[in-house]
Task: structure prediction
Amino acid sequence: MGTTEDLFEGPPAGLPAPTSRGTALYREGPGPAVVRHVGGYAAFVDFCAAQGVRADELAADPELLIWFLRTADSQIAEDSRLSAAATVFAGNTLARLRPDAQWTAYEGAPPTVGNRAKQFEVDRLLEGLRSADDAAVRGLISLLSDWAQEEPDEPAAMPPRPVPAATGQPRYVRPPLPAVTYYSAQGEPIPYGRKWGADGPDPDSYSVDSHPERFAGLHVVARALIERLAAVYDVDVQDDPALAGELLMEPKAVLQAVKITPRDAGAAALTFVLTGYPGVMVHAGVLHDFPFPVCGCDACDETAETVADRLEMLALSVAAGGYSERYPVGRKRWSEYALTAFDGSGSESGQGEPGPAAAVRLHDAEVRLREVSGVWSAWPLRRS
Result:
């Protein structure tokens, strides 16, 4: 009979499904389950027993676990199965330190354990113990202790609920984008959107931005969205390059800036800034900028079509009332946004330090978000 894996909270589960770091995350349904206890560490429990060490005591004491892992490192490193089990055990121990900690997985990267403020790549942490001196190990233990004792941040806000499209409201249709083939320096066609296989991007491709002109179609999409929003909703439209100042980010080579303000004080305005990159930056509400593309390097392998998907989702979802912002959040006074897709296909959220903004702008944003309780209303429809 095998070793029972019951040393951590709840029944053991598999790792969460990996998500992409390079694209907006639209999740169908309620979103992935929170994973705090991953299975697959029985071999490490058996190893501890063979060494005369109680695994349950290690699971309850990260300091004891770290010193044990450091002492037994050579034996663990020789057995890949044991090493993997030790990594899972250590990750579960970290997750046990805080009620808001969990396992997270990203495409092309090792899984992490942590909360919104701090995450740890567990396999890298264990590898580091092999070469770390005693002072570095004590520093790690101190870091974990401080993290465990930090006061929890406020829980994430409930996702906003967009208003369904009105009966008879015409669907937005993306305008045709130019079909262009781009070539490498060797004259080979570049299959943007499907350049990389299972091994992931070439490390050198992260610093290469070979054909940014492939994003020129985003200007066509942005103008179509502006026209659509102005036709369907009761809004004021301003077209003035100076409106690029709405952004918290610093735009480069502003070609056009258009602000759409709903005639409802509880609804969020959108400012579209078309840049010479070419690209589009959108300021939504009071404290959040969204760049399209986020990154145009060859490694990210974006196309105008994939970026346009996210640009359209943002604009149409904000107008439908699927957007919320909070500031300040928690002791760190972070800003936070949540976006629920207008068609109900999923959601996206983000949290972090607010972008560079004067104190008066942050104060005004705090007051404004208090007025709307953080949840922006759906835009009013234009009367026939």
